[in-house]
Design goal:
NAD, about 300 residues, six-stranded mixed beta sheet, 16 strands, alpha+beta, hydrolase activity
Length: about 300
């Protein structure tokens, strides 16, 4: 993990072979490799098998997977020199009750986060993000023509104007506002109306053009909670495949504790002491549910409880 805090959907073990996947001949040899394997997605859900050691991704020999989904495949990288692919099965009918019967079940990816090994989850998230991008970018944004797949699924090329399109990753600042000017340190959680009852989490928002990470953090906290940021400290990041974001986790010191939810993105806010935040993480707070463990908001809250601060 290169020294950073663990976050779910990171820890991908593959060599992405980004310097070689642009070579069609090399990619062709990988498709013909007898050791080539593939994971399978359907409606963004990975195929998971039950084993004696717990759930894990179900791996298919690549020729079998390619036959199931001949038009929706992508090269993910190399695992100990063996090529790894992903295929996406289309259609409304669950293929686990059809061509993939007996090989596993398709799990919703958020639910799978709590049961899959770290490396499996990272690869499944990578594949989901890639297929989602391809689905949304079938036509050239420059001239409107249908684009063609290239580089093993990591590029789309317009045959009319030759514009090249690459997968998008949208940066998001996600931050835990903290206030240290009172009798004891406090952190702020916010609540969106659409969340389950009691759920509260860190504040977050997309970066805007021409904006630094620190500026985006300060703007979002001012917009959502009416607070002024005085200092920002980076903690960790998380690839978030819903559909394809990079969550940039921050701790942000604010000037006062007079938070006001904007009633547009947040319907309520709450200040918590470290003891209260710990209780929420442990499921023991009387009214507040902490963010789920697979979310970086949970990681930030846990880090602050354990003493990570500005």
């Amino acid at each position: 993990m290169l020294g950073q805090a663990h976050t779910f959907f990171s820890g991908n073990p593959l060599d992405r072979a980004g310097d070689r996947r642009n070579d069609p001949e090399w990619l062709a040899t990988q498709e013909d490799n007898a050791e080539a394997l593939s994971l399978v997605l359907w409606q963004g859900r990975p195929l998971v098998e039950a084993t004696a050691d717990g759930p894990r991704l179900a791996w298919l020999a690549y020729p079998h997977a390619r036959d199931v989904a001949p038009d929706r495949r992508a090269f993910l990288g190399l695992w100990k020199e063996a090529p790894v692919f992903a295929v996406e099965v289309e259609g409304a009918d669950d293929p686990a009750f059809g061509p993939l019967e007996g090989l596993g079940e398709f799990h919703e990816l958020r639910a799978a986060a709590s049961v899959l090994p770290e490396r499996d989850l990272a690869m499944a998230g990578m594949a989901r993000s890639l297929f989602d991008w391809r689905r949304r970018h079938g036509f050239c944004a420059n001239c409107g023509a249908a684009t063609a797949d290239a580089s093993g699924g990591w590029k789309r090329i317009c045959p009319i104007c030759a514009t090249e399109h690459f997968p998008r990753v949208d940066p998001v600042t996600i931050m835990l506002p903290v206030f240290s000017g009172g009798p004891e340190p406090l952190c702020l959680l916010g609540r969106q109306a659409a969340w389950p009852p009691g759920r509260m989490s860190a504040l977050a928002g997309f970066l805007e053009p021409g904006e630094s990470v620190e500026e985006g953090c300060a703007r979002e906290i001012a917009e959502e909670a009416g607070l002024a940021v005085t200092r920002v400290r980076y903690h960790s990041s998380q690839p978030w495949p819903f559909p394809s974001q990079l969550m940039i986790g921050l701790i942000a010191e604010v000037s006062d504790d007079q938070a006001r939810p904007d009633q547009t993105e947040l319907e309520a806010v709450a200040w918590l002491t470290r003891a209260e935040a710990r209780a929420a993480l442990e499921g023991a707070h009387p009214t507040i549910l902490a963010p789920p463990p697979f979310a970086i908001a949970h990681t930030l809250l846990s880090a602050w409880v354990e003493g990570f601060d500005i």
